[in-house]
Amino acid sequence: MLPVEEVGMCSRTFFSALVQLIPCRAAVAPFSPIPPTESCCSAVVTLGRPCLCLLANGPPLSGIDRSMALQLPQRCFANFPPCDVIN
Known about the structure:
Strand content: under 5%
Number of helices: 5
Number of strands: 0
Largest sheet: none
Structural class: mainly alpha
């Protein structure tokens, strides 16, 4: 089970949070050299840390490099710390 501070404030389901990050798809594809776009970074900031952590600790997704996805807050200059991944 995930700590409350990780997911407790996310008001979205896993899949609705994932849909919110569709603009980031190219930036998190395996081996992608493409940086996150402005619309991707806007989605990251809007979604917020609790929902990003929900995604980070969710099931593996085909076509998504989890380590690249975990770097989105830093790459987008979002003002929150990275998520802790619970294995």
